[in-house]
Amino acid sequence: MAFALTISAFAQQSLMGGQTAKSPEINPDGTVTFRLIAPKARTVQVTGDFIPPIPANMNGMRMDTPATVNMVEKDGVWEYTTPVLEPELYSYVFKVDGATTLDPSNIYMFRDVATWSNILIVSKEKGDKGDLYSVNKVAHGEVAKVWYDSPTLGLSRRMTVYTPAGYFDKGNKTKYPVLYVLHGAGGDEEAWPNLGRATQILDNLIAEGKVKPCIMVMPNGNPNTSAAPGEWSAGMYTTSMNAGAGFPPAKAGIPESFGDIMKYVESHYRVLTGAANTAICGLSMGGGHSFQTSMLNPGKFGYIGLFSAAASVPNDAAQKAQFEQRMKALFAAKPKLYYIAIGETDFLYQSSVGLRKFLDENGYPYEYRETSGGHIWRNWRVYLTEFAQKAFK
Predict the structure, then answer these.
(1) Measured at the alpha carbon of residue 48, what is the angle toward residues 44 and 50, in degrees to the nearest 5?
(2) Which of 31, 95, 187, 197 is a plausible cystine mate for 183, CB 3.0–4.6 Å?
(3) pLDDT, tens digit, for every residue of 233-243?
(4) How far apart are CA 49 and CA 92, in angstroms?
(5) Which domain holds residue 39?
(6) Which residues lie across from 88 on neighbouring strands?
């Protein structure tokens, strides 16, 4: 997942007198043209999630790997035009003589773990995925970076909190349901707002009347860190898939400490409490945290979403017995929704198969959503979109 990024903007500006190419150019027919000014380069390629990935099998697990396409040079400008693209948010980088670089003509980008990529949005009509992920002319919610104390972890920690449009209006005393949204391994409290476009998704769906106005809480899921890299006292360290590597071990896990998050939210915001007004969902590691947190707190969450979740049935007899007891208590509380979603080439697919087999054998109700593709943000944005529309109904 990680690229060694080399920022070529300064070199390119000095080489071409500060000129940049028009890139990316979203064409009327739905194709996209990428350009890079690099007259001294021998080869230039573009790699992005608009290119069909290369299927791979890693130690028995299915996992797609990125593909690249060659760009064509004319008068020092390298160019590539895609086939017609479906509405979506896409990410990409260039490779110049094998070195990965961002597009100096595109200021729009995001960080995934330690990797920066440029982004673009393709939209063809109102309501498609590209439109849903865009900032539109609708009422916007407020997004705050909030610090809370976690006695369980012994840390002051940061999370991102979205409050719906109108929350801070004078005289508004409305209480709102709460949606907790958890990130995956290597991520932090900035992952869902940035890579997941979670705030745009909620703004647009609430404006369309498809989602009930709610408070959305996006915590940091690394229990031995306080915040995103560079945003706490540890300084500007380099993160990795194991975001807590190099720091003292956590005193507890996120599921065990989740009550600290809920206590802060329920004491600082106008919150409707109870299972009917409380939802939790997450991707990958965050799906595992949602899985575990809901089991530890039967009756607390009425809506539970597992997106490509690191969740499985234990093999150890003692652990399986405890797991069965907790799942029995969870479903005895009758959650309104237990939602499982995963891509058909996700490396966690077989874990999902095992979990669904257990649920079926015990008659525990759930909704299942399977999509194409693997362990990717393109899927997780879809799952959040669907889950949010099912919650609080």
Answers:
(1) 120
(2) 187
(3) 999 988 888 88
(4) 7
(5) 9-125
(6) 122
pLDDT digits (tens, 9 = 90+) for 73-112: 999 999 999 999 999 999 999 999 999 999 999 999 999 9
Query: Can you read off the two tokens belonging to residue 90?
Result: 């896409």
Encode 175-232 in three state secondary structure: CECEEEEECCCCCCCCHHHHCCCHHHHHHHHHHCCCCCCCEEEEECCCCCCCCCCCCC
- In the DSSP assignment, the letter for residue 249 is P
- Report the 10 Å Cβ neighbour count for 170: 4
- 300: CATH: 3.40.50.1820
Which residues is 62 bridged to in the sheet? 57
Shared domain for 203 and 121, answered yes or no, is no
Last residue of a domain, one of 75, 95, 125: 125
Structure-block tokens of residue 56: 């791979």
* Tokens found for residue 390: 């099912």
Number of other CB atoms surrounding residue 29 within 10 Å: 8
10 Å CB burial of residue 340 (0-12, 13-18, 19+) is buried
Q: What is the pTM of this model?
A: 0.92
- How many structural domains comprise the chain? 2
Which residues lie below 8 Å from residue 275, measured CB to CB, with a gap of 6+?
Answer: 299, 300, 301, 302, 333, 335, 336
As given in the structure block, the two tokens for residue 147 are 């610090």
Torsion from C-alpha of 355, 360, 365, 368, nearest 10 degrees:
60
* Residue among 313, 391, 300, 296 nearest 355 (CA): 313
Helices 285-296 and 254-268, packing angle to 10 deg: 80
Listed as ranges, residues in the chain with pLDDT below 70 are 1-19, 56-64
Strand partners, 116: 111
User: DSSP letter string over 156-172?
Assistant: EEEEEEEE-TTTTSTT-
Whether the ω angle into residue 24 lies within 30 degrees of 0, i.e. cis, is yes
